[in-house]
Protein: short-chain-enoyl-CoA hydratase
Organism: Pusillibacter faecalis
Amino acid sequence: MKNLTIDIQGQIALVQINRPKALNALNSETLDELYACLKEMELRRDIRILILTGAGTKAFVAGADISEMHQATAVEGLAMARLADRTFSLLENMPQVSIAAVNGYALGGGCEIAMACDIRVAAETAKFGQPECGLGIIPGFGGTQRLSRLVGKGRAKELIFTCDMIDAQEAYRIGLVNQIVPAEELMDACYAMGQKILKKGGYAVSLAKRVINAGMDMDLASGLELEATSFGLAFSTHDKYEGMGAFLEKRPAQLTDF
Ligand code: CO8
């Protein structure tokens, strides 16, 4: 792929957005490649963790590509937003756990793609923001929806209306990122989190992901019902018998379902 670098080690795939001269800005070509990459990956049972990062030390993703959007018509803008929505929704809902390794600027579409990941780990040097209103547009890759769900409506409105750029500490304080680490430890921290998750039941983790995601769009009673039926479903897996059996027999569990 022209704009993505993919490196698979064991059950962890590292996907790096690789357009460092444009601070890894997302153009249509990159979004197309990312969609194709994720579509193939979601069907693979040998990959359980996906780490997403940006090439270079300066930027994770500095947003959608402004040079491509500048002369785009409304119809083209809509098509680009739809392409991103399809790609980010796939990332959000695929069975693999996604970890954003935020290694620098995560602005506009960059903050939005990080928010579509399950977990965000930020380098101390990372910066976040939704600068769209300063460009005469609004967030179009999910920012108006995912940011408010993550940090609350009031904080999301402030960030989107003021276009303020916030540092990793502030992003952590408001719940936008899960963890902050020194820049040189970022990838190790993401792999360590991936390895920790790999020790748990793969099917159980992906089921929990599905229930958490679906529950966010439901009323509490419907979400609890979904949890109960999914909990019941987990009782039909090999991992449930193995996990509980291993506990009772005081031995390490061999969890294999995914
Ligand atoms: N798009 C295209 N090129 C970019 C982008 C971008 N988003 N960001 C940086 N670049 C390019 C610069 O143009 C520059 O290129 P060149 O060397 O050819 O002049 C190169 O990357 C380096 O950038 P800077 O010289 O500006 O680097 P600085 O260190 O001075 O500044 C910043 C770094 C602060 C990150 C600065 O580059 C910046 O503000 N970038 C734009 C950030 C931004 O506004 N992002 C939001 C874009 S809008 C968006 O994401 C909307 C998503 C929804 C779209 C809806 C569908 C249509």
